[in-house]
Amino acid sequence: MENTELLKPKINNKLVISIVSIISFFALFSIVLMYIMKTQNYFSSGNDMWGHLFKSDLMYKSIKSGDYYPLYTELWYNGIQPYRYWAPLPYYIMAGLQYLAGGSIINAYYLFTGLSFFVGAIGWLLWGISSRRIVICSFLGTIWFFMPENFRIFFCEGNLPRMVIAILLPYIVYFLWRFVEVEKNTSLFAIILLLCMSTLCHVMVAAMIGISSFIFLAIYSIYTKKVLRPIYALTGMLLSFALCGIWLYPALIGGIVGMDSTANAEVMGLLSAPLSMSLNPMNRISGVVDTFYYGISVTVVSLIGILLSNKKEKAGFYTVIIILLATTTAAMPFLSKLPLSQILWMRRFAPIAYALFFCSLIEWKKCKRKFMLILALIIVIDCIPSFNFSRYYTQLSTKTDNEIEIAETITNQRVALMDLSSNGSYPSWELCEGDNPTNYTFGWAWQGASTASNIVMLNTALEQGYFNYMFDRCIELGNDTVIVKKELLQMSNKSLQELCDAASNSQYNLYCETKQTYVFHRDVSNSFGVITKYEGLAIGKSASNITLCFPKFTVGNSDNIEDYTFEELSKYKIIYLSDFKYNSRKTAEAIVQKLSAEGIKIVIDMNRIPTDKITNRKTFLGVTAQNISFEKQYPNLIYRGNSVMHNNFNKDYTTWNTVYLDNIKYPTGKFYYLEQDLDFIGTNDDRNIVFVGLNILFHAMQTDDKAILSIMSETLNMEENSLPTRQLVNIDLTYKKDLIIIDTPVEGVNTTIAFQDNFVLNDSIKKENNLLIVTEKHTEIKLIYPYLKQGIIVTVIGILGILALYLIIIRKNKEVISNKSSN
């Protein structure tokens, strides 16, 4: 007995010495890592990193000035809410590190690298202490930072929020296991806190953690027959999102939830990969370093674990294989049809799979040491390429981009760099940093911009060569400097002369030419607004296409024609409807007829009209769109008695699914098909209402079909590429903490500032084409935290739900103990 008592302190002291030694090793490794990064100027080569550093530096400077949650910055996207859709926690962390680094954001990045390794490693050591498996957990802690996808996130993607979550994952999995397997009730609060932190880093990845945990716990429950505690854990995870309601509710109004399903499917496809790529280790050795690599070692060891480990340890191994299969291109058609498919960007699940994989390795306690050593060796070999920093870094440098230096020198109000983001997020940083930042129409992560649709249209105009539209809308967005990348001009199949002519039409001059770009500039005062007269209004989801060919059109704020007052619509000479909506067909028809009676022309794209809920037919004002399809080209089209020499369809649309018009009294366009005379354009008794079929505008834009465009030009009574009337006026802008003060010489000025939903609305401001219009000469706009009341309510619900869940768990435990005692 006495000897036993003497042994305990000796064992504890040995354990303490081991723990201190390992922590010291982690700290030393972190210091060496930071030293190598700093001395060699190693830096993330990822497209995202510079954008995240901008937001980090913005947070640091705002806190220094006494603003602890900046609601607004005018530097990106004509004004954005910087932490509305980009969760703020990573930027608070970086701001703290920047303070420790003496104000240097670059040195803060190096500190963050060391911190990432150290904190992540300690998470696995924590598991080693509780399970008395110090050696294996210390090994896992050392390689966690260098696991293939983790390392790619740090040095190829440069995604700061995902980096922070990678640090949190060891702790999340540790407390999840403690709650479910060890049955430590207090671990539930740690799970909820860590999920809250993850949500405040990246809400999509936090949701992915929940989905991965569901897969893991479902398999765990099958093998262990434990169901209740996994359900409690998953419920706690769900409630953690409600707990973040004060930030999450505003973030979900738009953002990823509002993403178009087609766009989401495209992103899902881009983030998938065949097994021949995701399991090919040679990509990390001699291939493209940012190619997705899941890890052949993780896959092989997981398969071995499934075959040889005991019941509960299999959960993590199975999860690895399930997530791997879900990352493949073959899985995309199935995943895209699932609920919440907008968060199933499966490549991003990989680090979570790694954490659950480590969990199963740690708990595989019956695995013999020699065999575990072999498995560890397999993993280490797979991680060796991560130590080759020279393949992953970007050399830091000062301003080497000549066009950016020029833009900073000549720009008075705002610059547009037309590069289709080929330069990554670096321009977003370089232009907007320093003591004299330059406002930028673009930025990084455009989904958070209220001018997102404007940005998409500008990029489309550049790609397809609609330069008149591009320069005109650059003026509307307040850009006095426009930079066009040379290689993109070549892609559009247009000449430099056509580019310069379009620039001249909007009073831009070719200021200079650099090796990579053309720099255009228009002489303006420091701040200017725009007064514009548009002839046409385009309404509907697909209506914006017409503005590229006919810039005299502007796009309406709503796709629903009933959302406009008659006074708003009657300001225009012509209304174009394409893929529009209405609440009642009779009401919509009455609106169109009333506008026509006032002399306003209405052109209706019959390919994209709502389907009548009663008849299930596409009918409007008595005209019905009938489905038809062609191969390779239209049949012979006759317009006003003359044959139209049209182009073949675009190679991507060899089968052309479209509509012809039924019940047209006065057709101006016909074609003969399958022994029938069919109509594709014309009017009924009201000659101001024109119906158009065959999707001719889209075809003309896809193939640059001048003959078809001339038909549209005649129908609209508008010349192609003709510009709206614009007048520039001087304005005074004053930005304060939560206030924007605007003074204009006249009323009704487009300020070129992006309209935000956190502007306090009053009668002196309105929204047009996502931009702020002031209707008075002096305007003061207060900025508020969006949806504050709703967010607080959701957070309170989360708190109450968590308390209720914990009380249920305690009561259930008491019942179990009581039943055991009675037995």
Summarize the model shown:
With 823 residues, this protein is α+β, with helices and mostly antiparallel strands. Residues 83-699 form the Membrane protein 6-pyruvoyl-tetrahydropterin synthase-related domain.
Task: Provide an overview of this structure.
The protein is of the alpha+beta class. Residues 1-10 and 396-400 have low confidence and may be disordered. A hairpin with a 2-residue loop joins β19 (732-736) and β20 (739-743). It starts with a helix and ends with a helix. Strands 7-6-8-9-17-16-15-12-13 form a nine-stranded mixed β-sheet, with helices on both faces. It has 31 helices and 24 strands. The chain is globular and about 95 Å long. It has four domains: 2-39 and 84-387, no CATH class; 402-531, no CATH class; 535-716, 3-Layer(aba) Sandwich (Rossmann fold), CATH 3.40.50; 727-782. The longest helix is centred in the first third of the chain and has 38 residues, at 2-39. Residues 83-699 form the Membrane protein 6-pyruvoyl-tetrahydropterin synthase-related domain. This is 6-pyruvoyl tetrahydrobiopterin synthase. InterPro entries: Membrane_prot_PTPS-rel_domain. Pfam families: PTPS_related.
